Amino acid sequence: MAKEKKERKRRYSLKGRTTMQGKNPHEKPNDFKGTVHNFALLFKPHRIRFAIVISASILSTIIGLFGPLFLGDIVDAIQAQVHAKLSGQPLVFTQINKVLIHLVIVYVISVIATYIQHFVMAGIVQKVVYDMREKINNKLSRLPLSYFDANTKGEILSKVTNDIDNIGNTLQNNLSQIITSLATIIGIIVMMFIINWRMTLLTLSVVPISITISVIIAKRSKKYFRRQWDCTGEINSHIEEMYSGHNIVKVFDHEEIAINEFDEMNDELYKVSKKAQFIAGLVMPLLDFLNNIGYVLISVVGGIYVLKQTLSLGSISSFITYSKLFTQPISNIGNVVNLLQSALASGERIFELLEADEEVEDCNECVLENAKGYISFENVNFSYSEDKPLIENLNLDVKPGQLIAIVGPTGAGKTTIVNLLMRFYEINSGKICVDGIDITKITRNNLRSVFGMVLQDTWLFKGTIIENLRYSKENATDDEIFEAAKSARANHFISTLPDGYNTMLEEDGANLSQGQRQLLTIARAILANPPILILDEATSSVDTRTEVLIQKAMSKLMEGRTSFVIAHRLSTIRDADVILVMNDGKIVEQGSHEQLLKKGGEYATLYKSQFSN
């Protein structure tokens, strides 16, 4: 029993999960240069403000570097006063006071410059993040339906929210620190060379080792940071699926399986996050160890120079301070570089989305006006994947005003025809025409404006009922909305609601029944008053009595309009002008209800299976 449970858990636990469109989840990212280049392009419009940040950083660094120099002067001044006291001369603090005043001025200017640097940098980073959100939002509207079929909602949402926030937070906290650290390193090297070039070379001897350690650790940590954000996307996807379908989960008693799936995903996220943080965290202690060794050597050599009176005590004091300051920005850069791996990993995911193939570019060679509804499919071929052809050599002529019913088993290609007609997918070969115009020669907006759709899966957004109905026609008057609702037989139940048409709907209309939601989507299509209708199991979620009423309303609506009806319940399509029977992407039978029954083929078999005793 335990073995059975373990096997069941294994089968369900990460079944079907994919990461980044089929990539190996543990694959090492290989587009480091491309990601950095893309970030550079985002920062390019802000180069003037970026120059201000660099200037403020350099000013802050240069001014701040005078601090240790002044401290050395204070040490020499105090030492001079000690000698004066020992020789019986009076103490004079003028020089010390003068140096202290200079020191205060230096640190005040440094603080102001640092504030300007961080303030401007914050504006740059937030604007870059803002632009990335804008680009993603615009990109999502240009992506083909196939992209959303291949990527889960949770994965896409994770990129839009988690990855963007990670980039903003990481860059905000660390980018300015890199600039400051680089400016500090250059300034300190100059100052140390001024004091003593031999001791400076001794200090610089640890730099190659520090850089080597940072690079090695950065390479190892990035793949774990990438996997960390992939796991975050997978968890978001799982949560979105489980909670949006929580009724199904409970009905089939899959709570434990869902919990086990989450636990495994969460455990994997914990492990990769722990590895990423552990490896990145090695930088600081290793660099500190090297820097402390260098600090000890400098102190010993400096002491020898003082004893030999090659350098003054104040100069050595300043140099030791500089050497200590020198190691700090190196350690900071090493640490920040590893932290930036997280931002680069998120950036790589974001740029993969931004660089995904878009819909074929619109062509506005022709304009479809006052569409009559003549539709033709000419030798159309289509497949969702190259190795599995679905529709082959499809030919179909639909006259204006005809009611075309499409029937067939699941997977026969019924809904695919609609997707191709609306250009949700592009055909592989052949031609589809509306009123004799190739649909690839007109814009998608122009094409889709002549269609009205009612799908089996209802879609309503959070808002009032009247706002949801007006979605299909923004300038619709209240009277037009009321008439459309009456035609769809939705007015009665809307009137019984406490706030009527101003009733606020929850997300996806969760506070209405499935049948009521379907009535609203039908009313929305009626309001649009399109010349061509597409009904994909539009009455499947309403009761029989309501279905009869809706059929009467739809019959009136479809008068004079070309209509496509996809139906499984054959009783709803008896009056269709033409019934297309599809199987394996091909039209295997075509004719009226009576003609197909007399033929005794697949349609007759389907019909008898539904109405036989």
Task: Give the topology.
Elements lengths: L1 H12 L18 H12 L3 H40 L7 H49 L2 H6 L2 H43 L1 H8 L2 H38 L1 H6 L3 H27 L1 H25 L5 H42 L20 E8 L8 E8 L4 E5 L6 H8 L7 E6 L2 E2 L5 H5 L2 E4 L8 E2 H5 L8 H10 L3 H6 L7 E2 L8 H15 L3 E5 L7 H14 L4 E5 L11 E6 L2 E6 L1 H7 L2 H10 L2
Parallel strand pairs: 3-10, 3-11, 6-9, 9-10
Antiparallel strand pairs: 1-2, 1-4, 4-5, 7-8, 11-12
Helix pairs in contact: 2-12, 3-4, 3-6, 3-12, 4-6, 6-7, 6-8, 6-12, 8-10, 8-11, 8-12, 11-12, 16-18, 20-21
The CATH C-level class name of the largest domain: Mainly Alpha
- Bin the helical content: 55-70%
Q: Please work out how many helical segments DSSP would assign.
A: 21
- The span between the termini is 43 Å
Any overview of this molecule?
By secondary structure, this protein is α/β, with parallel strands linked by helices. The chain has three domains: 29-354, Up-down Bundle (ABC transporter transmembrane region fold), CATH 1.20.1560; 360-450 and 532-613, Rossmann fold (3-Layer(aba) Sandwich); 460-529, Rossmann fold. The chain has helices spanning 2-13, 32-43, 47-86, 94-142, 145-150, 153-195, 197-204, 207-244, 246-251, 255-281, 283-307, 313-354, 414-421, 444-448, 465-469, 478-487, 491-496, 514-528, 544-557, 593-599, 602-611, and strands spanning 375-382, 391-398, 403-407, 429-434, 437-438, 451-454, 463-464, 504-505, 532-536, 562-566, 578-583, 586-591. It has a six-stranded mixed beta sheet with strand order 6-9-10-3-11-12, with helices on both faces. It has a four-stranded antiparallel beta sheet with strand order 2-1-4-5, with no helix packed on it. Strand 1 (375-382) and strand 2 form a beta hairpin. The longest helix is centred in the N-terminal third of the chain and has 49 residues, at 94-142. It starts with a helix and ends with a helix.
